[in-house]
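Long-time lurker. I teach an intro course on protein structure, and each term I like to show students one example going from raw sequence to a predicted 3D structure in token notation. This year I'd like something fresh instead of my usual example. Would anyone be willing to generate the tokens for the chain below so I can use it in lecture? Attribution to the forum is fine with me.
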Amino acid sequence: MKFKNPLLAVRDMERSKAFYRTVLGLRVIMDFGANVTLTGGVCLQTADSWADLLRVGAEDIRFGGKDGELYFEEDDFDGFLSRLEGLPDIRYVHPALEHPWGQRAVRFYDPDGHIIEVGENMKNVCRRFLDSGMTPEETAERMDVPLKFVSGCMR
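-- Reply from a regular --
Happy to contribute to a lecture. Here you go:
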């Protein structure tokens, strides 16, 4: 079995395509109208066509659940945050924070209430700790990762 792509139901395809292009830099690679595939493998499906595929009523499609998210990593996390702050319609789950393992992340909603997380690239987290003077062993302990991961980040 081969894993393909996550799919999100959306209320307004044009609004969603614009959001994912503007906020995350994703581009449309296939557009079938009711179904669109973006770079990164994210698929969008209109809510009415999704309901038809599931053979349920439109009222059965729910938005804004807090039971999952799309996760992305960003090499230039600070630059991403600056760009995000310049977008007036972003609704945050929470502002940027640092997780216990040291990775910085921000979570916000797409136009349909799906949670999007953008986290600092984990290799960059490792390099940040090493550059601060931590030993590889201290970095591995702080990040709760194997020393082998830290060694790989040092190359």
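Some talking points for your students: Strands lie at 7-10, 28-31, 35-38, 43-46, 69-74, 91-98, 104-109, 115-120. DSSP finds six helices and eight strands in the chain.
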